[in-house]
Write a structure and sequence with these properties.
seven-stranded mixed beta sheet; N-terminal domain of TfIIb; about 35% strand
Length: about 250
């Protein structure tokens, strides 16, 4: 997963404005009277959010299990001429990550948590988050909602076509175990030909209640639950839901 996808990820995610996402996360910090110096980005991908936060003065640790994604992230960080002491990338599974000490905040964005399809591993991730957060620290993350899986992704097929990159994205959502399998076929232009790549990704739908119960099980306070990039409560048709948890 993400072997070929990593190298075209930023082009496909060009609609994500990382500056807006960073603004939103900083507003959450402000609303909770938190001034973090060191934060972790779980599932950091190609490092765009990490670099944005470094440019705003934070020290950041980016964690991702894909060496291909991190290779792209390192290249971007070098091009941005960021000091080595400001940004560290770790090639680790976010369900088993290890740090040398505690941090002020942990974020996991763009439905990274949905990629943890085994609930036992999600529980382990929450336990690690509790271990590595400073007291009073925040864990901020978003998930694709159950509504989105059941009504939008479901068993639908999506496509994306440009001169350089095209893909066909077929979904198979299994309501019994709440797993959605994405079968993605890419066609990437190389000189005068198009090269085909195939990848299969999986995400799991988690209800708000499941997340709340998991947080409480590991002693994390549920501070707020928001609709996507707002400070409004999610509704029955919210597609992306943000959670703000705190270690007491």
């Amino acid at each position: 997963m993400y072997i070929y996808f990593a190298h075209i990820y930023d082009k496909l995610m060009s609609d994500i404005n990382y500056s807006d996402w960073a603004d939103y996360i900083e507003k959450i910090f402000e609303k909770n009277n938190l001034k973090p110096e060191l934060l972790v980005d779980l599932g950091c991908g190609t490092g765009s959010f990490c670099i944005e936060m470094c440019n705003r003065g934070y020290d950041v640790i980016g964690i991702d299990s894909s060496s291909d994604m991190l290779s792209c992230a390192l290249t971007k960080a070098e091009n941005a001429q960021l000091p080595n002491e400001k940004l560290l990338f770790l090639n680790q599974d976010m369900t088993e990550f290890e740090l040398y000490g505690t941090v002020d905040a942990i974020v996991s964005l763009i439905d990274s948590m949905n990629y943890i399809t085994d609930k036992r591993k999600l529980k382990r991730t929450f336990k690690l988050i509790w271990n590595y957060l400073n007291h009073g620290g925040l864990f901020i993350f978003d998930i694709n909602s159950v509504y989105k899986f059941e009504n939008i992704l479901c068993n639908n097929t999506f496509h994306y076509i440009t001169d350089d990159i095209s893909y066909i994205w077929e979904n198979n959502y299994m309501k019994r175990n709440k797993i959605c399998e994405f079968d993605i076929t890419f066609f990437v232009k190389e000189e005068n030909l198009y090269k085909r790549f195939d990848e299969i990704h999986q995400q799991r739908a988690y209800s708000v209640e499941e997340i709340i119960n998991l947080a409480l099980e590991y002693g994390l306070e549920v501070i707020n639950i928001y609709d996507s990039l707002t400070f409004s409560k999610p509704n029955a048709k919210s597609e992306r839901i943000f959670f703000v948890l705190r270690k007491p």
